[in-house]
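Chapter review. Work through the record for Olfactory receptor before attempting the end-of-chapter questions.
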Amino acid sequence: MDRMPMMSNINNVTEFVLLGLIQNEEIQKTCFVLFLFFYLVVVLGNLLIVVTIVLSSRLNSPMYFFLSYLSFIDICYSSVTTPKMIADFLVEKKTISVIGCKVQLFGGHFFGCTEAIILTVMAYDRYIAICKPLHYTTIMTKRACSHVVAASWVGGFMHSLLQTLLTIHLPFCGPNEIDHFFCDVHPLLKLACTDTYIISIVVVVNSGVVALACFIVLVVSYIIILIYLRSRSSEGRRKALSTCASHITVVILFFGPCTFTYIRPSSYSSEDKMVAVFFAVITPMLNPLIYTLRNEEVKNAMRKLWGRKVTSSEKTRM
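Structure tokens for Olfactory receptor:
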């Protein structure tokens, strides 16, 4: 493999060319309309959940506190890559500056890791609520929940900082084409004109530690919940499982694609683009639908809140 030495400071690249999701111009126009619709659903759907939880006095439990943050993170996570991808459907040459590329890399991993931690905390919250209901209010206090959310932001920042620092000083001397619709760590390592084997191992280990820790907590939490529910009545079991079903669905949709993309050696392929679309666009779009369609409390709060808004606006007009 003809790579330049690690100490080389040669860097002839001032911008990267994104090859995008697809190259067919006719299909790109269709994709522009389709993904613009998807992105609007992501923003408006998750924003609706955030506003409903913040304004509704009934949705004041820790579960909904974490759900509001999950929806906010989904908006931020999708906004890191999706607007650029949508805009690139309309241009022939899809370029991004080196600085813009690094910002995109940092933002994607920052919000992605933060979301993984929040999803894990939500599983722990369900475990406490179902298995230790008498201690729930003393364990999941507002202060404890705020500290957990703050810790998730710090954890996401540290993970993303390491991923970014591993690539920020790499020399790029050409070619500068990234076979992706956004800047990610594996495609960038592939373009670096130096040996990146050790760095790719560190990247996989870093992502693996985060994913493995979250996965263990998730699995243990739901195993304990399922064992505990065996002794409950059928009605209690049904109600408990209905509250967990939405979260389990979101966990599978999020961790499945992320695991495929990041917890394996740096052998990037074009198929990774389709998987990336799933966790960058599809999952944030489906989350509001999953949580609202399966949750009567959220639906009732939305009806009451927005029905009250309509009534008050009609009175103002009179």
